[in-house]
Write a structure and sequence with these properties.
12% helix; 3 helices; mainly beta
């Protein structure tokens, strides 16, 4: 695992690269011991420690609803807990409705990919881990055409891409940015052909030995789904 600060267009971003041949990336929503949502990274970290695992990296997963359940597809350890959501709503109702939205998935052979939600459905391949979110930041090398370069809608933002079949890249802004700048980071600086927005305002990463980065803690609300990399203690 590699983490670093990247400066792009005058903004700082924390970028984490994972090699899936060496690191096991998983998703966690509810504590298997009591079926209660973890809600935050610290609770997941404590659960891991109690089970002999050290949390090396964590990040918020995809968009969720008012009841703190994933708004779209959510697959954990091969089990589909929430089905794919292809509802096309009013973009004013939230980021998930800005088309296209997409899916980040780790497939049964261990490779990762970001696909638009319709592409994911068409592929029809079973997955071990998946989160649906939106909008797509970059689609086949093109920035989502709905983003405006000089937009003043600035928020802390997080996203993910598969730089290669077994190389996953996460990024979170260290200050508020607009969608176009964030998408440009993934395409022009990180070299991603397909990238997915995870969330804004509440987005944080946890990196072992470094701590938290991204949105200020007072902005953070409970998560429905947390990416994690654990190491055995």
């Amino acid at each position: 695992m590699e983490s670093r600060t990247v400066n792009f267009q005058g903004q700082d971003f924390t970028v984490v690269r994972l090699d899936l041949h060496r690191e096991s990336l998983s998703l966690h929503w509810k504590n298997p011991d009591n079926s209660q949502p973890f809600g935050d990274i610290q609770t997941l970290r404590e659960w891991g420690a109690a089970n002999g695992k050290r949390l090396m990296f964590a990040a918020n997963a995809g968009i969720y609803d008012a009841a703190f359940s994933p708004l779209g597809l959510y697959v954990e350890n091969g089990k589909t807990l929430v089905p794919l959501n292809l509802f096309r709503g009013n973009p004013a109702a939230g980021n998930f409705s800005i088309q296209p939205n997409g899916v980040f998935a780790i497939y049964q052979d261990g490779h990762a990919a970001v696909r638009t939600s319709t592409q994911f459905k068409t592929d029809g391949k079973p997955v071990d881990w998946a989160t649906q979110s939106g909008p797509m930041l970059v689609i086949d090398g093109q920035i989502n055409h709905q983003f405006v370069g000089d937009s003043n809608s600035n928020k802390w933002r997080s996203g993910v891409c598969a730089h290669g079949p077994y190389q996953v890249v996460f990024a979170v802004s260290e200050s508020p940015v607009n969608f176009h700048t964030f998408a440009s980071l993934f395409r022009d600086k990180l070299g991603c052909r397909d990238a997915l927005y995870l969330d804004g305002t509440i987005s944080q990463f946890y990196i072992d030995g470094t701590g938290y980065t991204g949105a200020p803690t007072f902005m953070v609300k409970p998560y429905a789904g947390i990416f994690a990399v654990f190491a055995n203690q």
